[in-house]
Amino acid sequence: TGELGDVSALAGHGPVAAPDGPTRAGAGSKEEPPAALSPDAGVEADRPRPVPPVLTPEAETSRGASSLLARFRRLMLESSWRQTRGCLMLAAANGIASGAALVSLLPASVALGSGAPRWGLSFGGWLVTFGICGVVAAVTEFQGQRRGMSGALGFMHDVHHAVGDRIARLPLRWFNADSAGTLSRAVSQEMVALGESAAHFMYMLTSTSAACVVVWAGSWAWDWRLGLLLTVAAPLFAGLVRAARRLLDHGKSVSEPAERELATRIVEIARCQGALRSCRAATGYSRLASAFDDGARASRRSLWWETAGNVVNGALSQVIVVAMIALTASYAVSGTMEPLVAVAIIGMCLRFTTMLDDIGASVMGLEERRQMMNHLDAVMDAELMAEPEARAMLPDPGAVELNDVVFGYRADEPVLGGVSMNVPARSMCAIVGPSGSGKTTIARLIARFWDTGSGTVRVSGTDVRDMPTAQLMEQLSMVFQDVYLFDDTLDANVRIGDPAADDEQVRWAADLAGVTEIVNRLPHGWSTRVGEGGRALSGGERQRVSIARALLKRAPIVLLDEATSALDAENEANIVAAMQELRRTSTLIVIAHKLETIAAADQVIVLDDAGQVAQCGSHENLVEVDGPYRSFWEQRTRARGWALVSRAE
């Protein structure tokens, strides 16, 4: 049997008080979602479902015309935006002061050479002006960089929260191999680069642009020839920057698919360590090795394009600088320009072209991060699963009904082929069948991790598509096969079932699920941290914590996916007792192979390989007639009777 998806506690279910722990997708089963999900088949006309976005380079570059600053603003809270806005205002002030200081050197040089005032000030006056501009530039630089860093940290904080809130509301089908790798990069290494954009590149671009405008205006006021020289140089530099950016963009597009594939394979090998080690393939995973090789080849090709871009942006720009210096020097040699003024103009030209280089570097730095922003936009723009805002009426609390449900993770690979079942309130239903028959898929559809291709799923008498996610989660508790515990105390992990529960209720659930026995032998009792994923506990112990969550929540409906598969015989009695308590207060839908659990069910539903209901009835009735259930029962009974005997001497 496949397992409930590992992002089930996040995908499509904003208020996650209900889930009792996500699991990783099972392998080798028709039920598991494929690497690239396509829209489900057979969508009902009156219930359209959103199609998950595809994170392709073509889709990403289509966003290029949008304002990068506006996209930063979209993800920021007001406090972070105030810091960033203040940073940009200070950057503009810094640029104006720096440009004014540079322009003041022209009249200062003439005043120094001639001894006469220029533009109303003597050399000493221009020296004071230069000093004032320098002080203003230094102060605004310090304050602007400080605010920029605060804004960058705020941006990263805001984005982590925004993305976390968003993915908690996305449908599970959005999460595929490509999106997992892209998302992991977007919220880790790329987040730092985007923060650098907010703190550094935007500041530099604003400051140098303002300085260039001041220098350009001052040059025209000083001498039309200097103004014309800078006016001609600016578009030439802009053209070179644009050409260099195109080369860099092409280089990035060459390496991006391989980088995305490598990130996906790294996530994959981290999640599948158990399966890989069992096959002795943990250190020789060919798909990861192939991704590394492809990434290296793509990086080499990308480097050629990026090198060409740097040559265009660097070497050719220096040709323009040399031409400007030569032209100015020729004026000085011919006597049409004073040597001291020529030196000042050459210095201004050098500084002006340096500022243009800085603008080009800032633009290219921001362009390189545009694709990173595209990854975040793919998450923030992904369509949520349609749901009503108003709470629905629940005419039959605790009941579950599937009516002619057809579903497939791929349009051409149906998993369920017209399943109908009715589970009355406060009854227990066991679902059995061969691997890949759709048992776990039924649980996923009940929890609305996916929508059906056709047919309806009703919980408490209402179609799951007609109630808000929060209300649906109030109806369900889920005990997953591979329980996930958060890196927190044992007490906090149990309280996920009901954060408002008092200590007495928590201890009651713990006693019944066998968690108290775990607490008594842990060094810090209830305050013991269980580690990320609950690695400090065994699989059976994590399972008991999950059962305690379900007991504490007291939801009308409990979904158990092989709830006893990870337990040894000594501890299984605790879980059986807990299941009896859950059965007394809730509807139980169990996916398991334990004979005792199946026999205790009020109703047994048998699925065949085609994902259809082959048999339905009580254990007593089904075991008496020929059919798949009787064959299954006899096979399991024979396997259970095996025993180890001593070898004869």
TrEMBL record:
Membrane-related topology note: Multi-pass membrane protein
Protein name: ABC transporter, ATP-binding protein
Region of interest (Disordered), residue spans: 1-62
Signal peptide annotation: none
ABC transmembrane type-1 domain boundaries: 90-368
Compartments, record wording: Cell inner membrane
One Pfam family from the record: ABC_tran
Family per record: Belongs to the ABC transporter superfamily. Siderophore-Fe(3+) uptake transporter (SIUT) (TC 3.A.1.21) family.
Origin superkingdom: Bacteria
Originating organism: Actinomyces naeslundii (strain ATCC 12104 / DSM 43013 / CCUG 2238 / JCM 8349 / NCTC 10301 / Howell 279)
ABC transporter domain span: 400-635
GO cellular component: plasma membrane
Transmembrane stretches, start-end: 86-107, 119-139, 201-220, 226-244, 311-334
Keywords per UniProt: ATP-binding, Cell inner membrane, Cell membrane, Membrane, Nucleotide-binding, Transmembrane, Transmembrane helix, Transport
GO molecular function, one term: ATP binding
Keyword ATP-binding among UniProt keywords: yes
